[in-house]
Design goal:
Elements (H helix, E strand, L loop, with lengths): L1 H14 L13 E5 L2 E4 L18 E5 L2 E5 L5 H14 L4 E5 L11 H7 L4 E4 L1 H22 L14 E2 L5 E4 L2 E8 L7 E6 L3 E5 L15 H11 L6 E4 L8 H22 L4 H11 L9 H17 L2
């Protein structure tokens, strides 16, 4: 019995560390629009259990080439995405868009380069600057810590091509339009509108998951969503959670606006963040089943107070 227990513990320790060329377990790819596939990552934070993977990598077949959006949180996750792409097409990946600086979305760039060395990487100019200034290495270390070393071997391949707001790029037979902001989820965010009616929002919009807002602003995020709601898109791919209709964006906007307005009312009444929490939570009844609500709402109230004080 003791030997069995020791073997089990040893096997868990071994499983926590990826070997050379290792790949996370496969997740299914779903075709959400013509020539467009998405792998919906699990909800939750990066962990040993999910091998650090929890975003929504996607790719679009654009005539004679493939364009990738956010290939994942590590080289191991990126390799899973590469294999999924290769199951859908033999065409090469020529470009990758990274929606923002948070590494759970783009540290998979390394795997794309392993498979397609000529691919180019595109992002918000502030994403590139912040990644170079230390965010990239911070995320590499964070992913390693959260997965107990599973993502070790990941190297930050920082994008080199900067977007501009409203920029339209032609890749193969598809056009990709950039909608960027500097005051939304991470202050380094782009949303990518493809001419087949699909919008990739990055973490400006999540589906039934409470967003981390430490690096952004509520009002800036609301403004970005308001802009997105005017676009003629049919399918929305959020940064986390299942793809769906533009109703996803409306729900995310409603959450932010309801929370911010409720905090403002209580702040104007002279309450501190912890004093106002019960009343704010009551007004968020419609969102209380969202993943992470109970653990995140207190922090979000505090962040909203800080934002109000800076107005």
């Amino acid at each position: 019995m003791r030997l069995t227990a020791l073997f089990f513990i040893a096997s868990l320790a071994f499983a926590a560390h990826a070997g050379p060329g290792d790949t996370i377990k496969a997740y299914p790819a779903e075709q959400v629009a013509p020539d467009t596939w998405v792998i919906t990552g699990p909800l939750g934070e990066p962990s040993v259990e999910n091998q650090g993977f929890m975003n929504n990598p996607a790719w679009i077949i654009a005539g004679d080439q493939v364009i990738v959006i956010d290939p994942g949180s590590s080289v191991q996750a990126g390799r899973m995405v590469v294999k999924a792409i290769q199951k859908t097409t033999g065409l090469p990946v020529t470009a990758v868009y990274n929606t923002h600086v948070h590494g759970d979305h783009w540290l998979g760039n390394q795997a794309i380069l392993e498979a397609w060395p000529k691919a180019v990487f595109i992002a918000h100019p502030d994403m590139i600057a912040k990644a170079k200034a230390g965010e990239a290495e911070s995320w590499v270390k964070l992913m390693s810590n959260l997965t107990q070393g599973y993502t070790d071997g990941t190297r930050a391949e920082i994008p080199t091509l900067a977007t501009t707001d409203g920029m339209v790029s032609k890749h193969g037979n598809r056009s990709f339009k950039i909608h960027s902001s500097n005051d939304a989820h991470s202050k380094t965010d782009i949303m990518i509108e493809v001419d087949n009616g699909v919008l990739f929002t990055g973490d400006n919009v999540l589906n039934q998951r409470v967003a981390r807002m430490d690096d952004g602003t509520f009002m800036g995020n609301i403004k970005a969503i308001d802009r997105a709601l005017t676009l003629p898109v049919k399918v929305v791919v959020p940064g986390h959670g299942k793809p769906g209709s533009p109703a996803i964006m409306k729900a995310q906007r409603d959450y932010f606006q309801t929370l911010f307005d409720a905090v403002k009312v209580e702040y104007d009444a002279g309450k501190s963040d912890f004093e106002m929490k019960p009343e704010v939570v009551k007004k968020l009844t419609a969102f209380q089943k969202w993943h992470g609500f109970d653990t995140a709402v207190g922090k979000q109230i505090s962040l909203a107070v800080l934002e109000i004080e800076q107005q």
